[in-house]
Amino acid sequence: MKPSVILYKALPDDLTQRLETYFNLVQVKDLSPQTVSQNADAFAHAEGMLGSSQTVNRELLEKMPALRAASTVSVGYNNYDVPALTERGIVLMHTPTVLTETVADTLMTLVLTTARRAVDVAQRVKRGEWRSGITPDWFGVDVHHKTMGIVGMGRIGMALAQRANLGFGMPILYHARSRHQEAEARFNARHCSLDTLLAESDFVCLVLPLTDETHHLISAPQLAKMKASAILINGGRGPVVDEKALIAALQAGQIHGAGLDVFEQEPLPVDSPLLEMSNVVALPHIGSATFETRYNMAACAVDNLIAALTGKVEQNCVNPQVLKS
Ligand code: GLV
Ligand code: GLV
Description:
Blueprint (H helix, E strand, L loop, with lengths): L3 E4 L5 H10 L1 E4 L5 H6 L1 H6 L2 E4 L6 H5 L6 E4 L9 H6 L3 E3 L6 H16 L2 H9 L21 E4 L3 H14 L3 E4 L5 H7 L2 E2 L2 H7 L2 E4 L13 H6 L5 E4 L8 H9 L5 E4 L19 E3 L8 H19 L11 H4 L1
One glyoxylic acid binds next to α8.
């Protein structure tokens, strides 16, 4: 008999069919307590699950005693209780490689649109305001040859450094737990403390996963260290930035602007003060959201689940210690 799998994300038809050749697929709309109780039998027998941003905690895992593998269509996995999965011997699979270049494009989009006020002035054009002429309050600031600080020099940080340094001639500072020889050799990137990076960068780009250590890494004291002319870019996870402190810093003119793809609460509440600010570009967590990359991520997650449930995991495993026991 084929293993049972809960699918809680819509996938392209060909990928759903691929899953069906291996598994007895049960498709549900979400992982809410209501959905779980309505499909209690399917959750009780499921050996695998595939989806993305929904919460997978101990309470849910208790309803899934047969679970052996979870596969997420994302690089980030802060919504999974990894210790709980590992204790139960459940492998967690993610998609760390296929989205790198696309997310770096998104970060560069935030850098450019925020610096050049592209969203704000495009809205003015649509409102017919070009007719009265362009005054200096339509002007932006340069990007080329400015200093870019990258916090978190992983794959995405590297792809961002490549664009910024080789494409825009930007000197690169980076802060990461360990030195990155390749970043230093290819992009002349300089390793420094977070404080130095904050003080010297014109663009502070956060490319970090959400962990206990990165939660509110950027709060009032860190924002106070940034230049008044600097722009903060967050393309990792919202709670890496203390959003209240960021709003206060922007309101006080302590920093020049912010380009954000992620927020403490998503979707961003419509009454957020960030939405009132013309020096803020807010994107709806679209870091990896292109047709090509979302397809490739879904295909990767499908392959990951097949590998995990057939005992052939070679890569993309978050808790490989489970495989050894
Ligand atoms: C998107 O944010 C991801 O983690 O893939
Ligand atoms: C971003 O979430 C990363 O892990 O590089």
